Amino acid sequence: MNIRTGRHCVFMLHAHLIFITKYRGNVFNESSLQRLEAILKEVCRLFEVELVEFNGEHDHVHLLINYPPKVQLSKLINSLKGVSSRKLKQEFDSIREHWICKKSGSLWSPSYFAGSVGGAPLSVLKQYIEQQDGPL
């Protein structure tokens, strides 16, 4: 059990996040997914969030996070998607060129999935994310 403490609280909050690429574009490969994971970990660290598990496919990614109560998920998600989009397009020509052809500046769809994780043990959810068809 991963119970964390804050200045005035004790907490164990986990969320399962799913981001999909705009138009479900098949843009990720093994190296871009590895870099994406590193970028997301750094953004999480800045928010005092732990990226517990990460996996992805050509057109979407799964994240399992452990976050403090002071973090607004919508703001965290906005930063995760914005920073990762900007950095991946700077570092991977194939991703940048894909979106130039589509005449769209966004890597990610504006929608996302965020589910609270409370009923299932974390080991079950981690196993589910690990078993998704990634890395490529």
UniProtKB/TrEMBL annotation:
Matches recorded under InterPro entries: Transposase_17, Transposase_17_sf
Recorded superkingdom: Bacteria
Example of a GO biological process term: DNA transposition
Database matches in Pfam families: Y1_Tnp
Gene Ontology MF term list: DNA binding; transposase activity
Domain Transposase IS200-like: 10-132
PANTHER family documented for this protein: TRANSPOSASE FOR INSERTION SEQUENCE ELEMENT IS200 (PTHR33360:SF2)
Protein name as annotated: Putative transposase
Natural source organism: Thiothrix eikelboomii
